[in-house]
Design a protein that fits this description.
Radius of gyration: 18 Å
CATH class: Alpha Beta
Number of helices: 11
CATH topology: Rossmann fold
Helix content: 40-55%
Shape: globular
CATH architecture: 3-Layer(aba) Sandwich
Largest sheet: 5 strands, parallel
CATH superfamily: P-loop containing nucleotide triphosphate hydrolases
Number of strands: 5
Distance between the termini: 24 Å
Number of domains: 1
Length: 260
């Protein structure tokens, strides 16, 4: 069974759609941490449905109840991830931190403690921190997250190299061509403004473990992808085909997934 850990602001919505086109609708189970932590009861419902994949904003932990489960996730450099998070909250009235974001600078937002997503959020989710929003992230938490990535994950996709990661995942799992349209690409006012040095320091300070996690995973991914000559050829073909035919194929698959 596959489980997609959707970390906010990491190109996860795009991957969510790609995955949803690879499996029948009745084989997909959606779960979020807001609905409760992993449990035997949740695992029983997933297995009773006969699900092949679980997707949502949830932390690692479900494998304790479904040992055969393997995770996938997207990671992103902490600076653009937090910048995107702030802009989303600032300009989207439906975001759960919208009201707070309107009165805070980015540096204040990152330092506010309003959400675990703003402070080593990737490490928290991948380590399965129990008190997600208030639990302390330590070097031991990072070691656990890295251990989970090493032993429990079928794929780790850096969002900055999304196409390569997607093609490797599709190859490993025997998927059909993973055509896609970018989902939730930000078009908010001021998106070209870059943070100043003080703001960058605040992001790095509150995401020190995420920085280490991302840099290590990104380097490991590059080592694999850059040595794969077939992937380089496949990448060029895929980008050309996805540009020319991807939209039509994506929309056809979306219609089938929703209505047929």
């Amino acid at each position: 069974m596959l489980a997609f850990v959707h970390i906010p602001k990491t190109a996860g919505t795009t991957l969510h759609k790609v995955i949803s086109h690879q499996y029948p609708r009745e084989k997909i189970f959606i779960h979020h941490d807001t609905e409760g932590p992993p449990s035997a009861e949740l695992a029983a419902r997933i297995e009773a449905q006969g699900a092949s994949v679980v997707m949502g904003h949830f932390s690692v932990g479900l494998h304790e109840f479904i040992p055969s489960l393997r995770y996938v996730t997207c990671l992103r450099d902490p600076i653009p991830r937090l910048l995107s998070h702030y802009r989303h909250a600032l300009y989207d009235p439906t975001h759960y931190l919208h009201r707070e974001a309107k009165s805070l600078t980015l540096a204040e937002y990152v330092s506010s403690g309003l959400s675990g997503e703003l402070s080593d959020g990737m490490t928290r989710m991948l380590a399965g921190v129990g008190d997600f929003h208030h639990g302390k992230v330590t070097d031991e938490t990072l070691v656990l997250a890295l251990s989970n990535l090493e032993t429990l994950f079928a794929a780790i996709i850096p969002s900055e190299r999304f196409d390569e990661g997607l093609l490797l995942l599709a190859r490993d799992l025997g998927w059909k061509s993973p055509f896609y349209l970018r989902r939730k690409v930000g078009h908010n006012p001021g998106t070209t403004t870059q943070p100043d040095s003080e703001t960058l320091r605040a992001i790095e300070e509150h995401n020190r473990h995420d920085r280490q996690l991302y840099d290590l995973c990104s380097a490991r991914f590059a080592q694999r992808a850059d040595a794969d000559t077939e992937l380089l050829r496949q990448l060029a073909r895929f980008r050309k085909t996805n540009s020319a035919l991807g939209k039509a194929a994506f929309l056809a698959r979306e219609f089938k997934a929703r209505y047929l």
